[in-house]
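NAD(+) diphosphatase, Salpingoeca rosetta. Tokens?
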Amino acid sequence: MTDRAVHNVFSGASLAVDRCNNERGDAAFLEQALTSARARFLPFVNLEVVVNSTSSAAVPKLVWLSRQHPAIAALLDNSASSSDDKHFSHKGCVLLGKVTDATELDNVEVGDFLWAFPTTPQTLAEHSFGEAAAPLNVRTYALSTATRTEAAITAHAKALLEFLQRHRFCGLCGKRVVARKGGSELACEAAPECTGRWFPRTDPVVIMVVVDPATNSALLARQSRYPPGMWSALAGFMEHGESAEEAVRREVQEEAGVRVGACTYHSSQPWPFPYSLMLGFVAQATTTDITVDPNELEDARWFTLAEVQAMLENSGGQDGLRTPPSGAIAHQLMRHHVATATAQQQQQQQQQQQQQQPMSML
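Tokens:
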């Protein structure tokens, strides 16, 4: 399976952007990347990405500011250093990387250095960020109009900015931490006396479509926060000391009371809310009786192959039931289940026809 075989939204940034991990430790490189005429800066307001939404534009466009933009010039040229500047380093900017493929990017070119930075509604109002610049929820932007590369870059930026926002103090001594390497590492300000070093956090989550091998039915669930009619795959955070497959079995049994045997990995999806990594599986049920944990789920039930197909196509023929949008890995897991089970049924039918053919000729 190639990187492009499964299109999970928020993945694919490495196909277009070199994160420069080998150069991030070089202060001279970071300074050159920050002050270069090829530097481009993506603003975020309250962790929402700033986009231009004009009547002439078919879709919202990311706002990439140049080094010469008044807001960036004021940010980088300000000699005053606040405590937040010290925490974030590089005047609050985080390095996303260097563009290697600009095919799916607007207003940037190959060789540009991409940065993201947090700003305020006041700065957005004081400086011209574009004709109709406004913050937009990252999930809304990525799951609606963004290209794969734009969604992935936005996810990287949002997750990294939120990590830095939430981690301001050393977990060993309690003093403030300082961002290094373009935001990809935190170090205690009391170093070398304190050896605390911290790295961007990723929380692994297993998400799985559970299949009854006897009927090809799929176990799906609802939470109270879901929109009316939407059902999704079961999911849960991994715990220390367990494999992903063990987490699949534990979560399904805890939330729905169903036991699971074989688990097959499908794909993964970065999920920057705040900074998770979804690990997608198709799991085979060994029992089918459901006992819902009301603290986790509103409901859970088995759906036939035809029902899942109808939900995926959003036909409305199944009492208005539907799946998550196509950008969610849950949707892709359900679509994979339908395609695989349908192919298996067709193969079985062909085999039966071939076995019956000699008898009909007697």
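The chain has two domains: 13-166, 203-346.
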